[in-house]
Amino acid sequence: MLLIRSLLSHVFRASRPALITSLALGSLYTHAANASTDDAKTVRIAVIASFEAGKPTFNGASEIVRRDGWLESELKKRGVALDYVTVSTSAVATQVNEALANRGVDFAAYGDLPSIVVNAEGIKTRIIVPGGAGMNTYLIVPADSQAKSLRDLIGKRVAINRGRPWEYQFRKLVDQNGLKFSDFHIINLNPQAGAAAIAAGQVDAEFTLSESFTLEDKKLAKIVWSSRDEPADWRMRAELWGTDDFVSHNPELTQLVATAFVKAQYWISQTANQNDFYKVAARAGVPESSVRRQYADDSVAWKDQWSPLFSAGLEQHYVAEAQYAKQTEIISTPVNVSTFFDTRFVDAALKQLNLTTYWTAPAASVAAAAAR
User: Fold this and answer.
1) Which residue has the higher pLDDT, 54 or 33?
2) Structural domain ending residue among the three candidates 203, 234, 265
3) Which CATH number fits the domain that encloses residue 193?
4) Given 208, 234, 260, which residue is the final one in a domain?
5) Residue 273 and residue 208 share a domain
6) Cα–Cα distance, 152 to 138 (Å, whole number)
7) Domain span including residue 354
8) Residues 57 and 102 in one domain
9) Total structural domains within the chain
10) CB-based contact 312:372 (threshold 8 Å)
11) Residue (of 98, 87, 93, 119) closest to 5 by Cα position
12) Other CB atoms closer than 10 Å to residue 176's CB: what's the count?
């Protein structure tokens, strides 16, 4: 663990502090993989959590899985414990990838770019349950700014958390405008620090996620661009990932985890549960009004936003993002993304839950949108 923390200290000082890129971590994983994981007695899932009065609330489907209790109950019947390993919103990629490298978790619900990075370093994982249509990204400026587009920010200070999943979407926006990262003064800040910098006028813009609505509601910022009007591939993705080693040795336990997350996404996708979900999501530290605005007027229907189906659009997204990671030297080793997609567990879950026809349209719509 001391070795890991030393390596992380070095990574934090590098240009992309949220990424674990040391070959030493891959070596650590390879060494540890020699240990057998047959007949696992604990299932460990890394989840993004916010804390209020010392009590954690998880993000998205992870919170519904916990609240439902089905997974914990089913594992207990088999003499297996369930351990949620919480990671903070300010350092998700680093904490999850450290846990994966140290064999501290078996599953992780987190974003796309860090997942590509960890696979490039030899820590093999695969997608067990796709997370849906993905999350929109936003470009915001201070409330009194005269900027109306990215081009108005040339030469200005733009905050973005380098190495986090939405860096890829920012690059797409930069490319779309015929610009380069060097056309801006990029400041590497996590979303919390970026929001504070926007409010204090210390940066001219920030590229971020749903925190944008909270700042806009407080009249501290305004949104000048959103991925809502772009093809589906412009959205930031997050999936439920499983380590190759655990999945290979524990297919029955993996199926239980997959079924629990499909159950959760099905529950969220029902219109009757939408308001309840907003309240649950708001307990993670984002005002309910901001959560509602995040999903309002979206081009993707509410049900389809939570589809766990593997689609052509999903594969295209990871192919393109892996190419970006290699081209920009975020990773040094190319990644074969075809190894990411393990459809067996979602297929079985949908049959078990009698949902094989519930999400038929989203796969086609996502693929079509990505091809535009």
Assistant:
1) 54
2) 234
3) 3.40.190.10
4) 234
5) no
6) 15
7) 2-134+237-371
8) yes
9) 2
10) no
11) 98
12) 11
Q: Which two tokens stand for residue 342?
A: 């393990």
Quick one: 189 and 250 in the same domain?
no
Q: Are residues 126 and 182 in the same domain?
A: no
Please name which of 156, 95, 99, 157 lies closest in space to residue 125, comparing C-alpha atoms.
Answer: 99
CB distance 157 to 205 below 8 Å: yes
The two structure tokens encoding residue 129: 């349950």
228 and 277 housed in the same domain: no
Q: Is the separation of the CB atoms in 161 and 194 below 8 Å?
A: yes
Q: How is residue 231 written in tokens?
A: 């093809």
Q: How far is CA 115 from CA 19, 118, 127, 173, 350, in A?
A: 10, 5, 10, 22, 25
- As given in the structure block, the two tokens for residue 200 are 């204090």
Q: What is the mean pLDDT of residues 100-109?
A: 96
- Half-sphere exposure (Cβ direction) of 126: Cα atoms closer than 13 Å: 18
φ and ψ at residue 238, rounded to 5 degrees: -145, 135
- Taking the model in full, what pTM does it have? 0.83
Name residue 159's beta-bridge partners: 187, 206
Write the pLDDT tens digit of every residue in 4-51. Answer: 333 333 333 333 333 333 333 333 333 333 344 448 999 999 999 887
Give the count of alpha carbons within 13 A of 6, CB side only: 4
174 shares a domain with 110: no
In terms of Cβ atoms closer than 10 Å to its own Cβ (0-12, 13-18, 19+), residue 68 is: middle
